[in-house]
Specification:
The complex is a heterodimer of chains A (about 375) and B (about 550). Chain A has about 375 residues and is α/β, with parallel strands linked by helices. Helix content of chain A is about 30%, strand content about 20%. Chain A has a 7-stranded mixed β-sheet, covered by helices on one side. A 6-stranded mixed β-sheet of chain A has the order 1-2-3-4-5-6, with no helix packed on it. In chain A, strand 7 and strand 8 form a beta hairpin. In chain B, strand 4 and strand 5 form a beta hairpin. In chain B, helix 1 runs antiparallel to helix 2, helix 1 packs across helix 9 and helix 2 crosses helix 10. The radius of gyration of chain B is 26 Å and the shape is globular. The chains are: A alpha/beta (about 375), B alpha+beta (about 550). Chains A and B meet through helix 7, helix 9 and helix 10 of A and helix 5, helix 6 and helix 20 of B.
C-alpha cells in the first residue's frame, strides 16, 4: 500500500495532513509555520504563526497583530504527534529551514537559503533528511557568486570614488536581509550610513529583537542634503527613480542583486553599478546543499525549476518540479524591473493595507515626503 | 587587452553621456596607437573576420565549461548573449595575460591557416589565461558579434577632444573600408594621402522624423507652423529602397550602402552609368527595383540583397535603378557646403548628360504651394510605392548625420490590424530572460493563423506584464519558443503588405511592430486573414 507522503503540495501551500499545519502557505490557514519574513513566504491572514524568534519583530511590523509563537533553532515543537524544528537557512536574519519528522520519516523545507556565511544571519546548516523541498532561484550554472568580501571591497571603493568626485552614493537592496548585510560590511571610515524609511523601520524592528546593527540615520525632510550626500544612502528597490532619490543628485546608484551577474539584467535596471550580491544560493551552493542532506528525493519550488530538476536527475538525484507561489512577490525572485514587481505585489497578497497603514503613520511621524512613500507602496517590494 | 576589457566594463557601468566620453578619452590616452585604431575599428562596426566558426567555438566552450550541451543552450537563453554565456560558464582562473588588443587580434587573424586541432589548442590555452571580463570581450572578438552600448558619435566626440580635430572631419575620415592593420593613427590624425581617399564615402545626411513616432501624426497646419513658409522647402517622395552613395573617382567606381558596406558588386546594372560619369563625382540616392519604369515594393529588392551570386534570373526579375537625391562631389570638389538648390542644379546637369537615364534616375520634385496641398499629395504615397514625403530646406548645406532642422521625413500613417499573440520567445541583450519576441495571428475561420513577428512597441512596464502573463499561460514549449494561451490582443502596425509563398498566411508585412496593447478587445474581436488580404489591394 502506497503511504501518503508526510508533506504534500496543495493550493494553499505545503501541507502536513498528519500534523494539520502548513509551511509558508499563501492562502489563509489555521496553523502556519513560517520560514522567514519575506512577503512571498509570510502571508497575512493565518490564525496561528510559528517562526524563529529573530523573525518576531519584523513579522509583527509587517503583518500587524498576529498570534505568533517563536522558537530557537533546534528546539522541537510537537503538533498532533509530528515534530517540527527549525534550522538556520542563512538567507536573512531569523530565516529557517523547517524539519518535519513523523515515525522516522524526515522532510526538510528549505524556504530560501544561501550557503555563504554573510556574518549577520545564522549560517546555513545542512540537515539530513529523506525528502528535501528546496528553492532554486538561481538554479542555472551562469550564476556563481564571488566571496562577499570581494563584492564589499568593490562597494567600499566605489563609495570612496564617489566621494572624490562629489557624487552622492545610493545603494539599493531589499529592505530585509540585503540592507542589513550591506550595513554590517560597509567601511564606516568613509562616512555615515543614511537609510530610507522603509529600511530603517526594518532595522528598528531587528534592533527591538536584540540584533546589533551598525549605526544608521533615517533620512527625513530635515536631513541636511549635503551631509547625506557625504555618506552612503541605503534605499529599497521601489525608491529607484522617485523624487525621494532624485533630490540627492548628482549621485551614482548601485544595485545589489544576484541578477546583476548578467549584463542584460544589469542594463535593464539602468543602474550605474551592479553588484552581484545575493541572499540565495548560487548554482554550486544549491548542489552542495542538496547533496549534504543525503535526501532520497528533492522537490524544487521556485526558480529555474525545470532546468535544475533535469540536471539533478542527470547527475543521479531524484528531483521533481512543484508549483508554488514562492518567488512571486520577492524582489530578488524575479529579474524584472520594479514595475513588474509592483504588479506582482497584488497577487493574492492581502497585506497591502496593513503595510500602508504602518507606512503612513510612520511618514506622518517623520514628516516624510508623502510622494515618495506613495511610490514605495506602488513599487511594492517594501513589504 | 586588460585596458580594453576595462573600457568595456566602465562603459557598461554608466548611463551618462559625459561619463562615457570621459571613459573613451581615458582609453585613447592610455593605450598605444595601434590599439586605438583597433578599438576604433571595432566601435565603428568593423569586426575582425571570424576565424573559427561559431559551432566549433560553442562545442569547445561546452567542453571547457564541463556541463552538458543542453544546459549550455538553456544558459544561453537566460543570458541572451553567446560571448557572455561562455565567459560565465567557464571556471575562474588565477592566470593573467598582458597581451595588448593588437596582439590578440593578430593572433586571431593568424588562425586563418591553422588546422582545427591547432585552433582548438590555441583557444583552450587562451581561455585559460584570461579572467572572466577579459574572456567576455575576447569571445566577442572571436565570434564577431561585437556591439557596444556606445554610438559612433560618442567615440568620434571623444576622439575629437583627444586630437583637437572637428567631429565632422573625423566622421568622414573613419568612413569607408579601412583596416586597422594598415590605416595608422597618424594617418587618421594628419590625413596624409592614403589609398583610402579614393573609395571613401561621405557621411550620410539623415532626415529627422516630423512625427516623433509613427503613432503621433501631425496635421499639415502643424507641419507648417513648425517649418515656416512652404516656398523655403523642396519636397520629394521618400523612396523605400537602399540608401546608397555612388562614387566615381580615379577611373574607379564604388557603391556604398548606408550601413557602410561596399556593395559595388551587388548592383552590376549600375556600373555602366557610373563608369560614364565624369571623374570625381559622388551621388547620394536610393537603389530600388524597377520594372517597366515603375518602382517595385521593397520585398522584390529584398530577394536579391542577401545573395552571393546574382543569377541571370534574379537580374531579370528584380532589375535595379538608382533614384538620385543629391550630388556631394563634382569634378573632384567636395560641394557639400553649397546650398540645396545649387547642388540640385548640378545633379540635374549630371543626370541630363547620362546616356543611361533608365538606370540613373532623378528624384522628381513635388510641386506644392502650401502645406495643405502637400498634405493631400502625401496621401498618394502608398500608390506611388513611397513611404511618404521628404522635406529639404532649399538654403541648407549637406550635413553630417541626423540633425534636426533642415531635412525632415513626413511618413504616412502605418496600416494596422488587431491580432492575437500566440507564440513568445525570449529576447537578447537588455531583454535577455524576458519574453519580448512575439508571434501574432489573425482569424481564418475558427483558426488562428500566424502572420507576423514583432519585437518592439511596448514600454518596459508593458513588457513585464506580458512576460508575467506568458510565464503563467504557457501551453507548450518547443525549445526556446512557448505556445501561449491565445488571449492578449495587440494592434500591429506595418508599412506595407505583400503576397508571400514562404509564409503560412500567404502574406508578408514590411516593418511590423506593436502599436498598442488592446486591453479593451477580447480575442474573438481580432481581425481576420480576409481583412488583411483585402489590404493587398488586388
Amino acid at each position: 500500500m502506497a503511504k501518503k507522503p508526510l508533506l504534500e503540495f496543495t493550493e494553499r501551500g505545503i501541507y502536513c495532513a498528519r500534523g494539520k499545519f502548513y509551511i509558508d502557505p499563501w492562502k489563509p490557514v489555521t496553523d502556519a509555520v513560517i520560514t522567514h519574513a519575506h512577503a512571498d513566504h509570510a502571508y497575512p491572514g493565518h490564525r496561528h504563526y510559528l517562526a524563529h524568534h529573530l523573525s518576531k519583530e519584523v513579522l509583527l511590523y509587517r503583518l500587524g497583530e498576529i498570534q505568533l509563537q517563536t522558537v530557537e533553532y533546534g528546539e522541537t515543537v510537537l503538533k498532533n504527534g509530528v515534530s517540527i524544528s527549525l534550522y538556520p537557512a542563512g538567507h536573512v536574519i531569523g530565516s529557517a529551514q523547517v524539519r518535519v519528522e513523523y515515525q522516522g520519516e524526515v522532510w526538510v523545507v528549505s524556504g530560501d537559503y544561501k550557503v555563504e556565511d554573510d556574518g549577520i544571519s545564522t549560517p546555513f546548516e545542512p540537515v539530513r533528511c529523506h525528502h528535501f523541498i528546496s528553492e532554486c532561484t538561481f538554479g542555472m550554472p551562469v550564476y556563481t557568486w564571488k566571496p562577499q568580501m570581494q563584492i564589499f571591497d568593490d562597494i567600499n571603493n566605489w563609495w570612496r570614488d564617489n566621494l572624490h568626485n562629489n557624487r552622492a552614493t545610493v545603494l539599493v537592496g531589499y529592505s530585509l536581509g540585503k540592507a542589513q548585510r550591506i550595513l554590517q560590511n560597509l567601511d564606516l571610515f568613509n562616512g555615515k550610513v543614511y537609510t530610507h524609511g522603509v529600511i530603517e523601520n526594518t532595522n528598528e524592528a531587528l534592533r527591538r529583537n536584540g540584533v546589533l546593527l551598525n549605526p544608521t540615520e533615517r533620512i527625513t525632510p530635515d536631513s541636511v542634503k549635503e551631509d547625506v550626500r557625504k555618506g552612503i544612502i541605503l534605499a529599497p528597490p521601489s525608491s529607484v527613480g522617485t523624487p525621494w532619490m532624485r533630490r540627492f543628485q548628482p549621485y551614482s546608484f548601485g544595485y545589489c542583486s544576484g541578477w546583476m551577474a548578467i549584463r542584460g539584467a544589469k542594463r535593464r535596471r539602468a543602474a550605474d553599478r551592479g553588484f552581484v550580491l545575493s541572499d540565495h544560493a548560487d548554482w554550486n551552493g544549491l548542489i552542495s546543499a542538496i547533496d549534504a542532506t543525503g535526501c532520497e528525493s528533492v522537490y524544487l519550488t521556485h526558480g529555474y525549476t525545470a532546468t535544475f530538476a533535469r540536471y539533478l536527475n542527470e547527475i543521479g538525484f531524484d528531483a521533481h518540479e512543484v508549483h508554488t507561489l514562492y518567488g512571486v512577490d520577492e524582489e530578488e525572485a524575479s529579474p524584472q524591473p520594479s514595475p513588474g514587481e509592483g504588479e506582482q505585489e497584488n497577487t493574492g497578497n492581502g497585506n497591502d493595507k496593513n503595510e500602508s497603514k504602518v507606512l503612513s503613520s510612520d511618514s506622518y511621524r517623520n514628516g516624510e515626503d508623502p510622494m515618495a512613500i506613495g511610490l514605495d507602496e506602488a513599487g511594492g517590494s517594501v513589504s | 587587452m586588460k585596458a580594453f576589457a576595462q573600457l568595456f566594463l566602465s562603459l557598461d557601468e554608466t548611463n551618462k553621456t559625459n561619463e562615457k566620453v570621459r571613459i573613451l578619452k581615458d582609453y585613447f590616452n592610455a593605450v598605444p596607437d595601434t590599439d586605438k585604431m583597433h578599438m576604433l575599428a571595432l566601435f565603428t562596426g568593423r569586426k575582425p573576420k571570424r576565424q573559427i566558426n561559431s559551432t566549433l567555438v560553442r562545442t569547445w566552450a561546452i567542453e571547457a565549461s564541463n556541463i552538458p550541451a543542453w544546459l549550455f543552450e538553456e544558459s544561453y537563453h537566460v543570458v541572451g548573449d553567446l560571448a557572455e554565456t561562455m565567459a560565465l560558464l567557464m571556471p575562474e582562473t588565477a592566470n593573467s595575460s598582458n597581451k595588448t588588443l593588437t596582439e590578440w587580434i593578430a593572433e586571431i587573424n593568424a588562425l586563418a591557416d591553422k588546422t582545427e586541432a591547432e585552433k582548438k589548442l590555441w583557444l583552450m590555452e587562451s581561455w585559460a589565461m584570461l579572467d572572466s571580463q577579459e574572456r567576455f570581450v575576447f569571445n566577442k572578438l572571436l565570434t564577431g558579434s561585437f556591439r557596444v552600448g556606445v554610438s559612433q558619435n560618442l567615440v568620434i566626440k571623444a576622439l575629437a577632444d583627444v586630437t583637437g580635430l572637428e567631429a565632422t572631419v573625423l566622421t568622414h575620415r573613419v568612413m569607408g573600408s579601412w583596416m586597422p592593420e594598415t590605416y595608422t593613427y597618424s594617418q587618421l590624425v594628419e590625413e596624409q594621402d592614403t589609398d583610402l581617399n579614393i573609395s571613401r564615402p561621405y557621411p550620410f545626411f539623415l532626415a529627422y522624423p516630423i512625427q516623433e513616432t509613427s503613432e503621433k501624426q501631425k496635421a499639415p497646419a502643424e507641419v507648417g507652423a513648425a517649418l515656416g513658409a512652404a516656398a523655403d522647402w523642396q519636397a520629394e517622395w521618400k523612396w523605400d529602397g537602399i540608401r546608397a552613395q555612388l562614387i566615381k573617382r580615379g577611373g574607379e567606381i564604388f557603391i556604398w550602402s548606408r550601413g557602410e558596406d561596399l556593395a559595388t558588386e551587388k548592383f552590376p546594372e549600375l556600373h555602366p552609368f557610373l563608369n560614364a560619369l565624369p571623374d570625381g563625382a559622388v551621388i547620394d540616392g536610393e537603389i530600388l527595383s524597377f520594372q517597366n519604369g515603375q518602382p517595385m515594393p521593397f520585398n522584390v529588392l529584398q530577394t536579391r540583397i542577401g545573395r552571393k551570386n546574382l543569377s541571370k534570373k534574379i537580374l531579370e526579375e528584380s532589375p535595379v535603378a538608382v533614384i538620385a537625391y543629391d550630388c556631394l562631389e563634382y569634378k573632384g570638389e567636395d560641394i557639400r557646403y553649397k546650398i540645396q538648390t545649387e547642388r540640385r542644379v548640378i545633379l540635374e546637369q549630371l543626370q541630363a548628360a547620362t546616356p543611361y537615364s533608365e538606370v540613373f534616375r532623378i528624384s522628381a520634385l513635388i510641386k506644392f504651394d502650401n502645406w495643405d496641398e502637400l498634405g493631400s499629395i502625401r496621401e498618394q504615397s502608398r500608390a506611388m510605392i513611397a513611404e511618404g514625403i521628404m522635406l529639404k530646406r532649399k538654403s541648407a548645406a549637406y550635413q553630417v548625420g541626423r540633425g534636426r532642422g533642415d531635412w525632415w521625413k513626413w511618413k504616412i500613417d502605418p496600416l494596422s490590424v488587431d491580432a492575437v499573440m500566440i507564440y513568445a520567445q525570449k529576447g537578447h541583450g537588455r531583454r535577455a530572460d524576458l519574453y519580448t519576441d512575439y508571434t501574432f495571428a489573425v482569424w481564418d475561420g475558427d483558426k488562428l493563423v500566424p502572420f507576423a513577428k514583432a519585437y518592439s512597441g511596448l514600454t518596459d512596464a508593458e513588457i513585464n506584464k506580458v512576460d508575467y502573463f506568458i510565464k503563467r499561460n504557457t501551453i507548450e514549449k518547443f525549445g526556446p519558443v512557448r505556445t501561449v494561451k491565445p488571449e492578449l490582443v495587440f494592434e500591429i502596425g506595418f508599412e506595407g503588405i505583400n503576397k508571400s509563398s514562404r509564409h503560412k498566411s500567404g502574406i508578408a508585412l514590411r516593418f511590423p511592430r506593436i502599436l498598442r496593447w488592446r486591453h479593451d478587445k477580447p480575442k474573438e474581436e481580432a481581425d481576420t486573414l480576409e481583412s488583411l488580404k483585402a489590404l493587398l489591394g488586388e
